[in-house]
Every structure is written in C-alpha cells, then in structure tokens.
C-alpha cells in the first residue's frame, strides 16, 4: 500500500496549487468538493498574512472555489496560535494588515506601542518608515521579534514587491536581532494546522508547488509530500535540492478520483 492510500487528512498550499492569478487551476474545484463530500479533514494554507480567512474565502469564491473560512490556515493564524501558547494574554506591536491584527487580537493579545512583549511583522502594502523605526526601537528595548513569513518578495502585475522578509532583514540589520519566523518553511505552521484539524503527521498529506517552502517543511513535519508543477517548480528546479517529495504530479487534477463508468454489454 502506498503512502497516499494511507493519507486521511490533507494540507494544501493555495497559490500555484489551487489558484493562479485569481483563476482556479484544473481539478481544484473537484478536489475540494471530493474532500468535503467524503468528510476528509483538510486545510488550505497560505503564507500571506494580509487577509483574514473570511477575505480569502471570498477571494477563492470569486475564483470559482468553495472554501469555507474554517478550512483556511494562514501564517497570521499560525503566528497568533504560537504567541498565545508562548505568552497567554501578552502584548504586541504589530506591523501588518487585517489578517495579522485580527488573528493576534482574537488570540487574546493586547496591541500596544509601549513596552510590548513582542514586535510582530506581517505582510502589508503600506510599510511606513515611522512604524519600522518604532519596531527597531522596541526590539532594541527588549521586545521579542516575530515575523509571520520569510518571503522576501511578493508578486504584482508590475513585477516583484518587497515583502515581509525584506522588511524583517532591514530591522535585523538595524538591531542585530534575528527574527523567529512562524510561516513556511518552518514546520511549526504545519504542526499548528494539524492541531487545528486534529490530524497526525503519519496520515496527513501536503500538496505544494515550492520545494523551498512547502516540500521542505512537509518533509520536516513528517508528512506525505506532493509537489505539483502548476506553480513555480519544474524538473530543473527540483534537481537543485538535496531532498525529494514523495510524489511529483502535473497538478491537483491528478488527485481527483474518477468514478468507474459501467458499460452495458
């Protein structure tokens, strides 16, 4: 019996796996429907910490995919879960948008600019020099430095944009303090996702399109890893790494089970 036959729960990346530039990829809608029909526990994961699960659910719906918000797990939610575990009822100075501020608030944290336990940097399209300066001073004063995800750039129609990792590098350079990054490729994000759906690593599969985040984190978390070639990885990219996924598929369409057709003779 192959490992895939033993998989009872699924984690899947979103961009490059289920959607590409706001269009559903072939097989994505059918696979999500299959999981929901079979009551298979699953979560859709994203390192993007800008949006709340409700926002992302609406964006996916506009792409033709039905993913209720309770099936979405973001680096912002993983970060909030990590902070709540580390310092219940703590305080944070947050650079970011609704995804991270809502998640941290709902985890029981207080937002403050005065002597916070943590400085948390998430994704935003509106980084302010004033906020970055404040973060640097608070970290220098003893606040612990947390980042939602390590992505240095993000995509836009005009080309790459500086993202969380780039801003974190600026703060690290100014303070000499390295951040703790919760999102992929930290397997912490997968472990918190497993906890949310009550799953275990030995019977959970991970579908991703990036060797350097999805697959390496899936391997380190002990999951059955599937790389799909609908995102940024191709054979040349795969061969650059010293590790391999359990399976390489053309896309999620290869995971959709088709019912056998009965032919009358």
Model description:
- Helix content is 35%, strand content 19%.
- Helix 4 packs parallel to helix 5, helix 4 crosses helix 8 and helix 6 (129-140) packs across helix 7 (164-175).
- The protein has helices at 3-6, 28-37, 53-62, 75-86, 98-106, 129-140, 164-175, 188-197, 211-220, 235-238, and strands spanning 9-13, 19-20, 23-24, 42-46, 72-74, 91-95, 110-111, 118-121, 144-147, 153-154, 161-162, 180-181, 204-208, 224-228, 247-249.
- The longest helix is centred in the N-terminal third of the chain and has 12 residues, at 75-86.
- By secondary structure, it is α/β, with parallel strands linked by helices.
- A 6-stranded parallel beta sheet has the order 5-4-1-13-14-15, sandwiched between helices. A 5-stranded parallel beta sheet has the order 7-6-8-9-12, with helices on both faces.
Query: How would you describe the shape?
Result: globular
Flag low-confidence runs: none
Rg of Cα set: 19 Å
The helix content, as a percent range, equals: 25-40%
Distance between the termini: 33 Å
> Kindly state the mean pLDDT as a whole number?
93
- N to C succession of SSEs: HEEEHEHEHEHEEHEEEHEHEHEHE
Strand residue percentage: 15-25%
Q: Count of DSSP helices? A: 10
Spatial strand arrangement across the major sheet? 5-4-1-13-14-15
Structural class: alpha/beta
Largest sheet: 6 strands, parallel
- Write down how many β-strands occur, each being a DSSP E stretch of 2 or more residues: 15
